[in-house]
Amino acid sequence: MGVSEVSYEESRRKRLEENKKRMEELNLHKLSESLRTAASPKSSPVKKVKPRTPRSPVDLSAVRRSSRFADKPSPNYKEVPIEPLERPKRSYQRRDLLNRVYASDEARVYAVERAEELQSGLETDFPSFVKPMLQSHVTGGFWLGLPVHFCKMHLPKHDEMISLVDEDGNESPVKYLAEKTGLSGGWRGFAIDHELVDGDALVFQLIKPTKFQVYIIKPDQSKDGDEDDGDEDSDASPLDMSAKRIRKKDFHN
């Protein structure tokens, strides 16, 4: 029994020595040590905290000022809200959209026929056209589109102010938009001042490059005028029946 134990210890010792020699030959001992040192956590250096420097006390004494401004009050930089400017009141009264006047088809056709009759008596040297009024022209958007062909032939190629002259000689400036071929700013005032309503027919006669003579035909007034005139004006021409027509000689004066 004792002999077997000795032989076991002897063989174990020899095995350990052989393993140690092999490790030294393969440098496994140094490699295991390097792995062991790499796996160990490194302690991070503690950051040094700088001590806070106390702030110097603020000097609340008066700021030194020039002698020129010593007697004057210190400036006040407080923002003062500016009161909004009042919008100028328009001289035109808004129309009640509930009280719109809608012309019948008969009245509308009658006004256009009267306008065309008036137009036929005007001087042909001055181009003209008839424009029936719709709700959008007189109570809605207050925009008046003009015939495109007429605008391309006779009106300026760029936006410009033009004048509308009524039968009493009163002029109203309006904005003509060349690209949209229509009247914009100022047309609203002209429509309200002359109480234009749906169904009216207007004759526009271009008497100057930027000036229109405007004749207004109202269906109700036209019918009343026919009844009052009776047979007295039955032999009169359309030009004689229209008041305050522009004749050719008037434009050369």
UniProtKB/TrEMBL annotation:
<keyword id="KW-0238">DNA-binding</keyword>
<dbReference type="InterPro" id="IPR015300">
    <property type="entry name" value="DNA-bd_pseudobarrel_sf"/>
</dbReference>
<keyword id="KW-0804">Transcription</keyword>
<keyword id="KW-0539">Nucleus</keyword>
<dbReference type="Pfam" id="PF02362">
    <property type="entry name" value="B3"/>
</dbReference>
<keyword id="KW-0805">Transcription regulation</keyword>
<feature type="compositionally biased region" description="Basic residues">
    <location>
        <begin position="244"/>
        <end position="253"/>
    </location>
</feature>
<protein>
    <recommendedName>
        <fullName>TF-B3 domain-containing protein</fullName>
    </recommendedName>
</protein>
<dbReference type="GO" id="GO:0005634">
    <property type="term" value="C:nucleus"/>
</dbReference>
<feature type="domain" description="TF-B3">
    <location>
        <begin position="129"/>
        <end position="220"/>
    </location>
</feature>
<dbReference type="InterPro" id="IPR003340">
    <property type="entry name" value="B3_DNA-bd"/>
</dbReference>
<dbReference type="InterPro" id="IPR044837">
    <property type="entry name" value="REM16-like"/>
</dbReference>
<feature type="region of interest" description="Disordered">
    <location>
        <begin position="1"/>
        <end position="85"/>
    </location>
</feature>
<feature type="compositionally biased region" description="Acidic residues">
    <location>
        <begin position="225"/>
        <end position="235"/>
    </location>
</feature>
<dbReference type="GO" id="GO:0003677">
    <property type="term" value="F:DNA binding"/>
</dbReference>
<feature type="region of interest" description="Disordered">
    <location>
        <begin position="218"/>
        <end position="253"/>
    </location>
</feature>
<feature type="compositionally biased region" description="Basic and acidic residues">
    <location>
        <begin position="9"/>
        <end position="33"/>
    </location>
</feature>
